[in-house]
Amino acid sequence: MYDNGQPYLSYVVCPVCSYQAMRTRVPKKLAEGGYNTCFVDCATSAHLYECYAPSHPLTRSGDRQMREKQLAFLVDRGLVCGSEGGRWWAVPWAAYFEGIMSTALWSHAPRDMAMNRLSGPLAEDEAYAEFDHGCNRRLPLWELVFHDATYVTWWWGDGQLRVPRNWWLKDLWNILYGTMPLWYIQQDGLSLFVDNLDAFAASYARISPVTRAVFGVEMTDHKILAADGTLQRTTWANGLVITVNFAERQAKTPEGDILPGHAFRVDGPAPRFPGLKLGEAIVMPDDFRPVKSRGLLNTSLEAGTLGWTVGPGIACELRRESEGASLRFFGREPNGWTIGGNGALLCYEPGRRYRFGALVKVNHIDPQTKPPYLTLSVFSNNRWLTNIHTPHYDTGRLGTWQKL
Residues 129, 156: contact at Cβ < 8 Å? Predict the structure, then answer.
């Protein structure tokens, strides 16, 4: 924002102004097609403010009303609407909220020990373990009031992968509360996803049937069944009962059944929930340790195009032919430098030698005076140092595979 020509960094914009911008931008985006959801960042996480602009003054109540008007504008256009954080006044319009599952102590999983540094120790400090997903410090107050109206998840930086070895624990909270998991699949999270596809599939298979069964259903009761909080239960208006044992040791339920450690069980009338595993204890994989790739992501292309990126104006598709699998990049971007690339972030060790390359075939390029080549970007302490290039593709031999 600017004040008398002086620029200032601003994170909060008066909703009167942002509403006008929304009315201009959203219809244009919808005209492009392909949109059915809109996420409004900060609308329900930022405090309510007063605006002192003479042309559009607002009280805090007026601020709230304008934010509600923004969300209603999106819903009226057929969009599924969501926002960061969550407030009661936004429930009539927001179908989901990102962040309510996380507590204010999420940041106590130090960044060099969390999912963005998988090569480091995968641990968290006591404050994070106790407050963010400790069984003595959480109550599903939001779910008891609003579960049948909204769906919530963790904050984007505090999802299932924040501390990968505690993935199973976050899954248990989602199952108990009937809420959505959150996977941050960028940077090292993308590497984790590509190299551990079976773990992601298993996590989805555990959570999804339960959350689907209670989607839009009222949570009618929540009970802590053990003095230390390790055994908990939620009851739902459709007759489903979810019991979770967070402890490592087995526990006895009020009905006298034994529930193994780090496990959950779902009970209810079977005819209402076909396909759901009822009355069966499911033990979580608490010994998961992520596999971290030592090279580029998905070079075998077994996971399709996962791990590969494209530049502006460029598309990418997987091709399987008799000579093997390959990626086809196509499109036009006369002002750009990047056709496509690999999203891996690799840590180099001093004293070691590395070689990177690829087999490249160019069928058509215009102009031929700009032949493609491979680039490796080198960073130190998150600062760009240099780029290292291969020789250019020989356009005199178009249609042939060349090793760069």
Answer: no
d(CA 68, CA 404): 55
Judge contact between 275 and 303, C-beta under 8 A: no
User: How many CB atoms sit inside 10 A of residue 11's CB?
Assistant: 7
Return the beta strands (E) in 225-280 as ranges: 231-236, 241-245, 251-252, 258-259, 263-267
DSSP for residue 380: E
Contacts of 314 (CB under 8 A, 6+ apart): 329, 330, 331, 333, 336, 338, 339, 340
Structure tokens at 401: 């595979």
For 30, other C-beta atoms within 10 Å of its C-beta total 16
Handedness of CA 106, 107, 113, 119 (dihedral sign): positive
SS3 state at 362: coil
pLDDT given for residue 114 in this prediction:
43
Counting runs of H as helices and runs of E as strands, what totals does the chain give? 7, 21
Do residues 234 and 221 make contact, with C-beta atoms less than 8 angstroms apart? yes
Long-range CB pairs of 197-203 (<8 Å, 24+ gap) are 197/303, 199/167, 199/285, 199/288, 199/290, 202/285, 203/160, 203/167, 203/171
Per-residue pLDDT at 139: 94
Peptide bond into 271 cis (omega under 30): no
Amino acid 188 reads D
Chunked mean pLDDT (size 10), the chain, 404 residues: 74 89 93 91 92 94 96 96 95 95 69 46 68 88 96 89 87 97 82 87 95 96 96 97 97 96 96 91 91 80 88 92 89 84 82 91 89 91 90 95 96
Cβ-based neighbours of 307, under 8 Å, separated by 6 or more:
190, 191, 194, 296, 297, 298, 342, 343, 344
Query: Under DSSP, is residue 299 helix (H, G, I), strand (E, B) or coil?
Result: coil
Rounded to whole angstroms, how far apart are CA atoms 91 and 101? Answer: 16
Tell me the residue ranges of DSSP E strands in 1-113: 2-3, 6-7, 37-44, 80-85, 96-98
Helix (H) or strand (E) holding 341: strand 340-342
Q: Is 13 helix (H, G, I), strand (E, B) or coil?
A: coil
Give pLDDT, residue 128. 79
Q: How far apart are CA 259 and CA 283, in angstroms?
A: 9
**pTM value surpassing 0.70:** yes
Pick the closest to residue 315 from 339, 296, 343 (CA basis). Answer: 339
Which residue type sits at 49? Y
Task: Give CA–CA dist 173/135, Å, rounded.
Answer: 9
Tally the residues of the chain.
404
DSSP state for residue 228 in the 8-state scheme: T
